[in-house]
Amino acid sequence: MGRSVLVTGGNRGIGRAIAEAFAATGDAVAITYRSGEPPAGFLAVRCDVTVSAEVDAAFNTIEAEQGPVEVLVANAGITRDTLLLRMSEDDWSSVVETNLTGSFRVVKRAAKGMLRLKRGRIVLVSSVVGLLGSAGQVNYAASKAGLVGMARSLARELGSRSITANVVAPGFVETDMTAELPEQARADYVKAIPLGRFTTADEVAAVVRWLASDEAGYITGAVIPVDGGLGMGH
C-alpha cells in the first residue's frame, strides 16, 4: 500500500516533479501551495508555511484524507536576491522565515505523527548555494545552509524511532527561471559545472524519492548534492 506523502511547494518546478515521482510509485501525495492553481491529481491544500495556523490546518486536512504523513519533503521556498548593502531587513527575514522557519514548522508538525508510527522520512530541499555561497544571495544561502544543521540535529534526535532526516542540495536546474537567463550568463554557469549542463527537476525528484525508499533506510543526516559536480568538496 502507498504511503502518505506531503510535498510543500508542490505546485510547480522541483516540488511538482517530486510529487509526480512519488505518485508514480503508488503513494498518496498531498501538496501545499501558496498561490496560483495547483496541478490536478494530488490532494492540494493552500498553505503559507510562514503562518503556523495554516500549517496546522493543512496537516489536519491531509491526515483526515490520507492518514499521518509518513514522508515529508520540505521544498517550499522563495528568493529575494540583492547585494548585501542593498538588502533590506524584510528581504532577509522573509526568505529566512519561509525557507528555514517554514521548514521547521512543517517538520515539527509531521514529526508528531511519525513518532507515533515509529517510522518516517524527512527530506529537506536545500541548494548548492547553501554550501558554496553566492554573491547577492546572503539571505537565501543562510536559509539553505540552516537546513543542513536542522536535518543533522533531527537525525540524532529522531533516529531511535526509525525516522531519517536528509538534505538534497540541487545545483542549477532547468526551470522557467533559468531559461530566461542571458545566454552569456548561462554559458558561464554551465562552464563551471563538471558535467557541462544544468540538471532537471526530474533528476532531483529521483534522488528525493530514493532517499525516502527502503533502499536508503540506513542513510540519515546526509547531504546529497544533485549539482553536476559544482559543489565538490562542500
Describe, in plain words, how this protein is organized in 3D.
This protein is α/β, with parallel strands linked by helices. The chain is 45% helix and 16% strand. It has one domain (4-226): Rossmann fold (3-Layer(aba) Sandwich). It has a 7-stranded parallel beta sheet, with helices on both faces. Strand 4, helix 3 and strand 5 form a beta-alpha-beta unit. Helix 1 (13-24) packs across helix 8, helix 2 packs parallel to helix 3 (89-117) and helix 3 (89-117) runs parallel beside helix 5. The longest helix has 29 residues, at 89-117. It is globular and about 50 Å long. The model has no long low-confidence stretch (mean pLDDT 95).
Overview features:
234 residues, Rossmann fold, 8 helices, 45% helix
What's the structural blueprint in terms of helices and strands?
Elements: E1 4-8, H1 13-24, E2 28-33, E3 43-46, H2 52-66, E4 71-74, H3 89-117, E5 120-125, H4 129-132, H5 138-158, E6 163-170, H6 176-179, H7 183-192, H8 201-211, E7 223-226
Parallel strand pairs: 1-2, 1-4, 2-3, 4-5, 5-6, 6-7
CATH topology heading: Rossmann fold
Q: Compute the gyration radius: what is it?
A: 17 Å
Number of helices: 8
Superfamily at the CATH H level? NAD(P)-binding Rossmann-like Domain
Average pLDDT works out at 95
The geometry reads as globular
Biggest pleated-sheet summary: 7 strands, parallel
The CATH architecture name reads 3-Layer(aba) Sandwich
Could you give the order of strands across the largest sheet? 3-2-1-4-5-6-7
β-strand number: 7
Please state roughly what percent of the residues sit in beta strands, choosing from under 5%, 5-15%, 15-25%, 25-35%, 35-45% or over 45%. 15-25%
Spans of at least 5 consecutive residues with low confidence: none
**Structural class estimated from helices and strands:** alpha/beta
Into how many domains do the coordinates divide?
1
How far the N terminus sits from the C terminus, by CA atoms, comes to: 38 Å
Order of helices and strands: EHEEHEHEHHEHHHE
Helix residue percentage: 40-55%
CATH C-level? Alpha Beta
